[in-house]
Amino acid sequence: MKTFGIAGWSGSGKTTLIEQLIPLFTARGLHVSLIKHTHHGFDIDRPGKDSHRFREAGASQVMLAGAARWALMHELRDEAQPSLVELLAQLSPCDLVLVEGFKSAELPKLEVHRPSVGKPFFHTEFPNVVAIASDEKLEVDLPVLDLNDVPALADYILRFTELA
Question: Is residue 68 one of the residues assigned to a domain?
Fold first, then answer.
């Protein structure tokens, strides 16, 4: 599996970009998966549902399975947060895994940067940034790609990962 990261500050447009990239990749016959990092607590379950009751009772893992999808919830409890490598090992084989967030992870990534967000670049701290996608012209030492030209961004990622 090839991995490629999309990272940027909150509000920079990472999720929107990924949402636009995935159909372009799948239209080329690629199987794409995604891992999204979140700094916020989250829960895909709801109190009162059977699966939530099982987790509250102490189950380490609860799998929901139906005709259209299945989902596995793993409670970390006292375990350390898994690394990106450990999370990637949980995925089924695919052609490309897009990784949202994980700025410091050792994988090639695109920094999504909008000057209007008012945040600094982070590629100076994380050497795995291979290019920057922006909605403005930038003076930096990396390739700068037009954030609004999603097909060109898709082509860049596929060339970089050698999937094109």
Answer: no
